[in-house]
From TrEMBL:
This is Glycosyltransferase family 4 protein. Residues 173-326 form the Glycosyl transferase family domain. It is an enzyme of class 2 (transferase). Its EC number is 2.4.-.-. Pfam families: Glycos_transf_1. GO terms for molecular function: glycosyltransferase activity.
Length: 356
């Protein structure tokens, strides 16, 4: 058996996260089952973590077009084609079917939806795309129930029988668990763009009395187009001694345990691997109600929840945490170890393949 996995995803040695560990583990398990895998990524320059995987790189261009170009003149006899992070129900899926009419096509949806929903014109386009191209996809997979609901809402409820949830999972073994309080140290692990809501976090800290911010540290790991805006806001609110920008890191699995809480003030999320990673390190999470967050978080038990964009509510939570009026005492890692672990995710994805 031979399959292709097409991922609109950039592989980088300075950013080894949950999906990277999934790709590697999935590849290894398939090899053990004597299933060959060709991988297609948006961009990749060889590094040790991905050694031994058969990877084609689009060099920053369209990974869908790379796949089509690579296979128009070849006969790879793929029995399954799996996509991650690509847009669903496009002409690409029809072209895949034309190239490999006997292959099972599996589309995994990791794509968050805007908080306010899509505009009417885009909603109509998606519904038409569902009618035109969904027939070429044998299985739709959402990484949360939230995602599945939106697949059906976007492309049509008629897809219900071939749509299912496969939750993300993480390699809990690589995360060092927090064993001490590390009071008033907060971590943010996020791409730096407006939809991640980090501007709300900065504003929230500006609403807290300065006397309460002594010894408070917020380390922001990540990079992105909104970084300078966030740095400027930090200066505007005189929070340079509180908020620090750390750039990308491939060692977050070792760093989470140094913090008391992770803050994720996001406006858009499907099912956050960062939340799973933080909880696995026994670090509770302060985040919003969006996406699949409430499918893993319980307010007051393994985190604190507020409505997206509400800086005052976030400031209130943070102030109570800093002044010991709120605290999470349960071991947050237990749920992740039991329900959201990598081997389970890999096993569920392999079950989607034909003849397995």
């Amino acid at each position: 058996m031979k399959i292709a996995v097409i991922c609109n995803y950039v592989l980088r040695p300075d950013r080894i996260g949950g999906m990277d560990r999934f790709y590697q583990s999935y590849n290894q398990k398939l090899i053990e089952m004597d299933i060959q895998v060709d991988w297609y990524f948006t961009n990749y320059t060889s590094f040790e973590f991905y050694k031994g995987m058969n990877i084609y790189s689009a060099e920053g261009a369209s990974v869908e077009q790379l796949f089509l170009n690579q296979n128009i003149s070849k006969n790879n006899n793929y029995e399954a084609i799996v996509t991650h992070f690509t847009e669903l129900c496009t002409s690409f899926y029809k072209e895949c079917h034309q190239l490999y009419p006997n292959a099972n096509i599996i589309a995994v949806d990791h794509n968050p939806r805007p908080l306010e929903g899509f505009p009417l014109k885009k909603r109509i386009k998606k519904r038409i795309a569902g009618l035109l191209y969904a027939k070429y996809i044998h299985q739709f997979v959402g990484v949360s129930q939230y995602t599945v609901n939106h697949i059906l809402n976007d492309y049509g409820a008629f897809l219900k029988d071939k749509t299912k949830v496969v939750y993300n999972g993480i390699d809990t073994k690589v995360f060092i668990k927090r064993t001490q309080e590390n009071k008033n140290k907060f971590i943010v692990a996020s791409h730096l763009r407006a939809s991640k809501g980090i501007q709300d976090l900065i504003k929230a800290f500006s609403l807290i009395d300065n006397s309460a911010l002594n010894n408070v540290v917020v380390d922001i790991y990540g990079e992105g187009p909104y970084e300078q805006v966030l740095r400027d806001l930090t200066v505007k609110y005189s929070l340079e001694d509180v908020i620090f920008f750390k750039g990308s890191s491939a060692k977050l699995n070792e760093l989470f345990c140094d913090y008391a809480y992770m803050i994720q003030p996001t406006y858009m999320e499907c099912f956050s691997l960062s939340i799973l990673e933080s909880l696995s390190a026994n670090v509770p999470v302060i985040t919003t109600t969006v996406g699949g967050n409430l499918e893993v978080l319980e307010n007051g038990k393994n985190g604190f929840i507020y409505e997206p964009g509400d800086s005052k509510a976030l400031a209130s939570i943070l102030e109570k945490v800093i002044t010991d009026k709120k605290n999470i005492t349960d071991d947050t890692a237990t749920l992740i170890q039991q329900e959201f672990y990598l081997d389970k995710m890999v096993s569920e994805h392999i079950k989607l393949l034909p003849c397995t």
